[in-house]
User: Fold this.
Amino acid sequence: MAFSNRWVLADGTLNDQPITIRYRDDVQQELDSGDYGQCIQISWEAEDVDAETGYPSAAELDKIDEFNKKLMDAIEPNAHGIVVMVLMAQGVNQWIVYVRDNEEIQKDLNTIPTDTGLYPIEVVSDEDAGWEIFTELRGAIKTH
Assistant:
């Protein structure tokens, strides 16, 4: 299954701090399929944050972008999971990923090269067959 690669980008503020959110625009088919019932949230808390913007430093943003590419390359080609949203605020980058099977995704995550060292990420999994996490966040963006 080829996923839509059309993304919507939204910038705004959260608690008087800048926030950037991007989400896939056309994921209704994946949601309706019922195949992706687990929501994985991956968080990367930046060590080096620009005090003025609240975003990670340029050097750390490069590392985050590289991880983002490796994450998508690891889970999406075989349709084990789909990255549907990425949020960045207050020094934290967070990926919202819907997956078929947690064990398969764990294997996929373990294939991500760590030639530059381990990634400072935390991974949380929740049952979310109706994609409430994603739809509530997307709805909040669209109404403001």
The longest helix spans residues 58-75. The mean pLDDT is 89. The chain has four helices and six strands.
